[in-house]
Amino acid sequence: MKAEAARTNRGFVLFCACLAVLLMSIGNVRKCAGDTWLGAMFTQVSGGSSEVLDEAIGLSFGGELSESVLRGQVVTTADMGKIFEATAATDPHFATVASLLTNGVDDYVFAFAETRRDGVFDGGIGCGYPESWGFFGSTRTDFKGATIQRIALSFWDLAFTTPNDVGGTDLELNVLIDVYGEWPLHTQRIGAIGGTSLTVDEASAVQLEFSDPAVYDPHVLFEGLVVTAADIGRTFTATAATDPDFDEVVALLTNGQADDMTLWQLEVQGGFLPGGGHGVVGSDFDFAGLYGTDFQGMTIESISITIENLTYTTPGDLGGTDSTLGVTVKINVVPEPASLGLFMLGATVLAAMRRKGSRR
Predict the structure, then answer these.
(1) Global confidence as pTM
(2) Beta bridge partners of 216
């Protein structure tokens, strides 16, 4: 028995998306301890057979049927509204699907409905995919950098039509796939090496400068922070509440282009900053777990630096003091929440669909 080709109803997908945004807006999104809702995918699944099928299907999700999560989970109309979850501990294919969803590539993923006849799976498959619609709640169709901890499936409007046009059974249902996990701290290791003809203190003022390479208007984090070798291993964190330039820096880091980030190591002499220093600048820093150097579509909660190494050599090559500095920069991000604009879009679409239905 061969299933019909998968098909997706774009209007229905949009309707479901807007409906879900409405639900999220009133707080109807589940969250378990230790994880965060990362995004949701909606699709309509359909298939058909020339044979008469059982009114039950096997529901699963993944890139390939043979390696899909929840494969073998049999559901009927009585299970509509229930939530079925897969984790690494409960599903042998969880790691494969999680890897597919975090590899940085916009892979195709499917909701599968395996058909059954006389109480057993008969090899027929109905499937649905939303193509480029992606995961609502995430600006991308892939969760690169995140750790996926749970994948949850639920469905509604499961319907069987017997007989169909060829004397068998058609099936159709609507599936919601929720992905839960954690976004990590995106990191970049940076080092600075320099020297001066002055003999300076074994202390350095350390700061991060961010600027648009086309228009030099720098914004500085950690201004006034002075560290010594005793601070190796310590982490210093900037937030909107603690640093006056934080919001401007976040605007640069989420503007969709590769801006400059400079690590400055400023010399301290007699407890004062004489005005000298050196830094390393670049617009091609690649934060671990990120597609590139920009965090467009994400909410940055904090930026931190960890002092990894700090050394001084006197006399140095110039007769004064040489120094080396190594820091790890971490950007703590979360996915962008559903906006009020999306809420209004959902309300508008729902109202329009009701008006359309009332004219029939």
Answers:
(1) 0.54
(2) none
Neighbours of 99 (CB within 10 A): 12
Asked if the bond preceding 163 is cis, omega within 30° of 0, the reply is yes
- Nearest alpha carbon to residue 206 among 216, 220, 195, 219: 220
Nearest partner of 53 among 146, 127, 116, 134, judged by Cα: 116
Whole-angstrom distance, CA of residue 351 vs CA of residue 295: 34
Q: What angle do CA 299, 21, 359 make, to 5 degrees?
A: 150
Q: What is the token pair recorded at 219?
A: 């914004």
What CA–CA distance (Å, rounded) separates 75 from 153? 11
pLDDT, one tens digit per residue, over 254-266 is 888 878 888 888 8
If we measure between CA atoms, which residue out of 355, 338, 13 comes closest to residue 175? 13
Instruction: Specify whether the CB–CB gap between 338 and 24 falls below 8 A.
Output: yes
Distance in angstroms (rounded) separating the CA atoms of residues 200 and 322: 9
Is residue 132 helix, strand or coil? helix
Q: How far apart are CA 219 and CA 185, in angstroms?
A: 21
Label residues 208-230 b or e (16+ Cβ within 10 Å = b): bbbbbeeeeeebbbbbebebeee
Q: Report the candidate in 143, 204, 190, 202 with the shortest Cα–Cα distance to residue 326.
A: 190
Helix (H/G/I), strand (E/B), else coil: 247 = helix
Residue 29: phi, psi to the nearest 5?
Answer: -125, 125
Secondary structure (3-state) at 319: coil
Taking the C-alpha atoms of residue 149 and residue 161, their distance in angstroms, rounded to an integer, is: 37
Q: Is residue 83 very low, low, confident or very high in pLDDT (cuts 50, 70, 90)?
A: very high
Contacts of 360 (CB under 8 A, 6+ apart): none
Task: Compute the distance between CA of residue 118 and CA of residue 132 in angstroms, rounded to an integer.
Answer: 37
* Burial readout 263-277 (b: 16 or more C-beta within 10 A, e: otherwise): bbbbbbbeeeeeeeb
Q: Which residue bears the tokens 């937030």?
A: 239
Distance between CA 27 and CA 34 in Å, rounded?
18
